[in-house]
Amino acid sequence: MTxxxxxxxxxxxxxxxxxGVGTRAQAEDAKPSAGPQEHVSQENQSQTGSHKRPIIICAxxxxxxxxxxxxxxxxxGDTLDAALKVVKGPEDDPNDDTVGLGGIPNEExxxxxxxxxxxxxxxxxxxxxxxxxxxxxxxxxxAVMEHTGHVMLVGEGAxxxxxxxxxxxENLLTEHSRKVWLLWKEFHSNEDWWGxxxxxxHWQAPDSGNGKPQAEVWxxxxxxxxxxAADLGIEPELQMDAxxxxxxxxxxxxxxxxxNDKGEISGCxxxxxxxxxxxxxxxxSPIIGAGCxxxxxxxxxxxxxxxxxxxxxxxxxxxxxNMRHGMSPQEAGMDALKRIVRNYNGDMNKLRFLDMTYYVxxxxxxxxxxxxxxxxxxxxxxxxxxxxxxRRAEVTVSLxxxxxxxxxxxxxxxxxxxxxxxx
Length: 423
Ligand code: ASP
Known about the structure:
Helices cover 33% and strands 19% of the residues. By secondary structure, the protein is α+β, with helices and mostly antiparallel strands. The protein has a domain at 29-173 and 250-398: Glutamine Phosphoribosylpyrophosphate, subunit 1, domain 1 (4-Layer Sandwich). The strands form three sheets. The chain has a nine-stranded mixed β-sheet with strand order 1-15-14-2-6-7-3-4-5. Strands 8-9-10-11-16 form a five-stranded mixed β-sheet. Strands 12-13 form a two-stranded antiparallel ribbon. α3 (66-74) packs antiparallel against α4, α8 crosses α9 and α11 (315-324) crosses α12 (329-343). The longest helix is centred in the middle third of the chain and has 18 residues, at 214-231. The structure holds aspartic acid. Aspartic acid (ASP) binds next to β9.
């Protein structure tokens, strides 16, 4: 293993905000293996005023599941059940590594999931955090809502509750996610005993890149990581993807809000949280008022992105309250984003490491998708998926021009290498 933690830190010189170096989550692009072709509309119809009911909005990794959920909602299905139908899709899909089965694990290699839901008509809520071994945590959050007098269960207690009400315990760490985690461990191994040691013929001193052009150093590092990926048994066609996930750890989540023709509205959010997070870390997704909030009188909102930041502005609740006081969905979402900016006094040197997307649905069917930055890169803008009779993905409206960077800071891979590598 030749990429050391020291090298990694040394080469993490930061690029300019607008330089388009964003590499954050793959989640919004995640598709089920046999998913339908996505219809992407550049026009955000939230601005041209689509006020249709019924309607479902969600993060773009729910796109493939919208048709079924919309048919269910249209035929009289409950709004929360419709939203759960959407998010269950990625939870069940082992290839979506941002939620449920196959989610990228925590730093100890254990998948820990968070979810919550709110049912507008009954004004009830349920939530679970840090759950291991149970795939459909969104449904567990609904079970907490229906079968207990509590709103939130966490950790082992949540898992035991899930088993008690009939959810199967299963291993959520797919072989692929386990190998990506192992590769990540080895990449960060200069200060521990993971990865091949001094006796390995390919071992190189941490400073061995010195003097060489950065592009060459990085090409070598990527190649070495790829060789390690092969040694770990990652299939050839997945090796580069694994290397990308190690260098630029994905994040991801899915939120969904559903509104029927009677004006009933519900929402839910589910996630595996930040890749390689500390065990026990819970983000915004299961926090009622942060990752999701629904008020039958007003509307529903949910979030994907930097969970820690969203908790501090109680994003989803702030948005719903903003709409209650007369703001449009887009204004309401933008205001919440500005509160995140305010928390850093507008310091772009910090804000470039954050990102946030809000999905906002008002009771009359008006909606918006807003984000702090434009996306991961020019080719991969943030999107909101919508179904109001026609299914589409729409590019979100962003507060800032440009693309966010990962935090912890991703290595500064030279542009020419990255272009090739990120294709
Ligand atoms: N918000 C999620 C969390 O912080 C991550 C994400 O949406 O990418 O756990």
